[in-house]
Amino acid sequence: MQDLTRVDEIVQHYSDVKTPLIYILKDVQKEYGFLSDVVLTHIAKKVDIPLSEIYGVATFYSLFTIKPKGKYVVRCCNNAPCYVKKSKEVLDAIKSYLGVEVTETTECGTFTLEFTSCLGLCAVAPVMMVNDEVYGNLTPEKAVAILKDYKMKGLSNA
Amino acid sequence: MHRNHVLIAMDAHTIAQGARAVRDALKRALDMTSLTDEVKVIETGSLGIYNRGVVLVIFPDNVYYVGVKVEDVAEIVSEHLIKGRVVERLHYTDVPVEKAAEMGAAPRFGKQQRVVLKNAGVIDPESLEEYIARDGYEALGKALTTMKPEDVIDIVKKSGIQGRGGAFFPTGLKWSFAAAEEAKQKYIICNADEGEPGTFKDRLILEGDPHSVIEGMALAGYAVGADMGYIYIRGEYRMSIERLNRAIQHATENGLLGENLFDSGFSFNLEVREGAGAYICGEETALIESIEGKRGEPRDKPPFPPSVGLWGMPTIVNNVETLANVPQIILKGADWYRSMGTEKSPGTKVFTMVGNINNPGLIEVPMGTTLREIIYDIGQGIPEGKGFMLAQMGGTTGGILTEKHLDLPMSVEALREIGSGLGSGALLVVDDSQDVVELVENFVEFFNHESCGKCTLCREGNGRLLELLQRINAGKGRMADLNLMEDLAVTMMKGAFCGLGQAAPVPILGCLKYFRDDFVRKIGAAEMAAAA
Amino acid sequence: MKTLADLRAVKEKAKQEMAMREQSAKYRISVAMGTCGIAAGARNVMSAILDEISKRGIQDAAVSQTGCLGCCDQEPLVQVTGADNNTITYSKVSPETARQIIADHVQAGRVVSEHVFNMG
Question: Residue B78 pLDDT > 90, yes or no?
Answer without folding.
Answer: no
